[in-house]
Amino acid sequence: MNLQSEWFPFSGHPLSDSCWSLSAGPDGRIYAAACCESQPGETVKLVRYNETRHALDYLFDLDVKAGDPRDSGRATQCKIHYSFAPSRHDGILFMATHLSGPPIDLPAYSPWYFWHDPERCFKGAALLAYDTKRDSVVWTDTLYPKEGCRCLLHDEDRGLLYSLSYPRDHLFVFDIARRRSRDLGRIGSINAQALFLDRRHRVWTTSDYGHLVRYDPDRDRVEVSPDVLPHNPVFQTGWHSVFYDVAPSPEGDCVYASTWIAQPHLIRIWPDEGVWGRVEDLGPATQERDPHRPVCTFLDHCGGLTFAGDGKLYYVASRWNAPDLHQEHDPFDLAAQNPRGIIWQLEPETCARREVGELVRPDYYAHYVPRGAVDHNGDLFFAHVGRPPVGIFRVPMPAECRRPDAPLPLRMWG
Amino acid sequence: MNMTTRKKYDFTRPDTRELRDRITHGVFLREGNLVAFPLCFPGASTPLPPDESQVTALSVAPSHMVYGGTSGRAAHVFVGMFHGVTGCVLALGEIRGATAIPAVCCTPRGWVAACNGPAGGRLVRGAYVPMPFDLIQEWEFTQVRFEDLGTAAEGEPVVHAVAEPGGGVLAATSHHLVRYRSEPPTGVETLAEVVGSRLSPALDGSVYGLCDARSLWRWDAASGRLDKRAVALPADAEVEAGLRWAVDPFRRRLYLTDQKGDLFILEPAHGVRGPVARTPLAPVTSLAATLDGRVYGTCGEGMEHFFRYTPGTDRIDDIGMAVSVLERRRYGYQYADAAMGRDGQLFFGENDTLGHLWIYFPRIEPSNSLI
Question: Is the entire prediction scored with pTM above 0.90?
Answer without folding.
Answer: yes
